[in-house]
Amino acid sequence: MNFIEELRWRGMLNDMTPGIEEQLQKEMTAGYIGFDPTAASLHIGNLATIMLLVHLQRAGHKPFALVGGATGMIGDPSGRSTERDYLSEETLRHNQEGIRAQLARFLNFSSGDNAAEMVNNYDWFKGISFLDFLREAGQHITVNYMVAKDSVKKRLETGLSFMEFSYQLLQGYDFYWLYKHKGVRLQMGGSDQWGNITTGTELIRRKEGAGTDRSEEHQAFALTTPLITKADGTKFGKSAGGNVWLDPGMTSPYQFYQFWLNSTDADCPRFIRVFTLLSQQEIKELERQHNEAPHLRILQKAIAEDVTIRVHSQAGYNLAVKASEVLFGKATLDTLRSIQVDEFDVIFEGVPQTEVSEEELANSKDITDLLSVASRGEVYSSKGEARRAIIQNAVSINKLKVADPTAPVDLEWLQNRYLLVSKGKKNHLLKKV
Question: Which Gene3D superfamilies does this UniProt record tie to the protein (predicted)?
């Protein structure tokens, strides 16, 4: 597999420094991407750069994932109009552990010579004094060079602290340290990171290669991937509830799966190339099938399956599919019976839920009472509204249509506790207490 050609056909190559293709063809090359621990989880906006590391390793090269325990204390000003909130060391450590666990799902850390490695830049910055850092890095990069970077120029009008101004020098030193101690020759990232990354290549050139006849031996390389945007111009990676996270505790597998399933037809050709490991031939065949029957959402389902399994496991994907069938698909009573107790909260997260006591059940003389009085108006606000909905064939309980508003409350409670009430296309869960 040719790494650069793989990125080209997938539309994942934005820019690169000269000589990188020759370097990758010549020998196994170590490359890295940095992730600042500004949250306890990475989000799907990080997936495009994670996939760079995945493809690098698949091509036989060695990936490094850098968790920025030190640079996370500063915050990257790239693409921002204001300074980031300061995070405590305790919060940063917590975030770092979560990110480490997530990256381990994508990279092989036991594949021999090209096994992935994870590093933390706090490990080398903690022993460097301010004066030592100025001598090590500051004297080699001019202020003119740093100010010329887009990430700096865009902030000069609104204000940029010296702390943030120093970020590109810190990131440049990361590259130099990894080059010197780990043999890393390549840094990658999103297109907004080009300025920071090339500061690293320049620092390596000036510290290691300047004034020698061995400059090629000391050459470092930069590569960026396009930032992901949606076809309609809205920001990628956001849902109605905010960021779509890789941590199941912050974004459930069901919500994660639904995000991809709701992708537009216009976005799918790019998403399936960037975020899945499907081959070029497989993708073209899926696109052909999708174009013949767009209503089947073949591309959306293929993307959702591939990405959900790799982020949340096969079990997480299976649960997400089951939840989708229950809430939106053609699930039956048998499907509901198959839901385990510990799955209910996951599947019905976000679905309105109402507790019904044994006394309220005992006082419900029929289905109409249960759906109005016993639920304290949470399902239907009045007996009249509940009765009309039943007569109009708009109510199902546990996926079975309710036809008689005077029918007794003789129902099968799922797991002896739950009733799923479907009001047209909307769902409501009753819980017996």
Answer: HUPs, RNA-binding S4 domain, Tyrosyl-Transfer RNA Synthetase
The number of angstroms, rounded, from the C-alpha of 308 to the middle of its chain's C-alpha atoms is 10
The closest of 10, 5, 8 to 282, measured between CA atoms, is 10
Written as one string, the DSSP assignment of 3-15 is HHHHHHHHT---E
Q: Which long-range contacts (CB under 8 A, 24 or more apart) does 157-164 make?
A: 158/81, 158/82, 160/77, 161/83, 163/74, 163/83, 164/74, 164/75, 164/76, 164/77, 164/83
Q: How many alpha carbons fall within 13 Å on the CB side of residue 354?
A: 19
Distance from chain centroid for Cα 350: 20
374: pLDDT strictly greater than 50: yes
Separation of alpha carbons 369 and 378, rounded Å = 12
Strand order in the sheet with 184-190: 15-16, 221-225, 184-190, 30-35, 62-67, 117-120
Dihedral sign, CA of 221, 119, 151, 232? positive
Average pLDDT, the chain: 87
Token readout for 385 is 């509204």
- Measured between alpha carbons, how far is 408 from 404 in angstroms, rounded to an integer? 9
Task: Check pLDDT > 60 for residue 75.
Answer: no
Q: How far is it, in rounded angstroms, from Cα 273 to Cα 143? A: 40
Encoding tokens for residue 91?
């919060």
Judge if pTM exceeds 0.85. no
Q: Which two tokens stand for residue 116?
A: 């992935």
CA atoms within 13 A on the CB side of 47: 25
End-to-end CA distance of the chain: 59
* 116: nearest Cα among 60, 171, 72: 60
SS3 breakdown of the chain: % helix, strand, coil, rounded to 5? 50, 15, 35
Q: State the helix-helix crossing angle for 268-275 and 3-10, rounded to 10 degrees.
A: 160
171 is in an annotated binding site: yes
Q: Which of 153, 288, 138 is nearest to 207 (CA)?
A: 138
d(CA 147, CA 151): 9
Q: What pLDDT is stored for residue 77 in this prediction?
A: 52
Q: Is 317:308 a contact under the CB 8 Å cutoff? A: yes
**86 assigned to a ligand binding site:** no
Indicate whether 82 pLDDT > 60.
no
User: Is 255 annotated among the ligand-binding residues?
Assistant: no
**23 known member of a binding site:** no
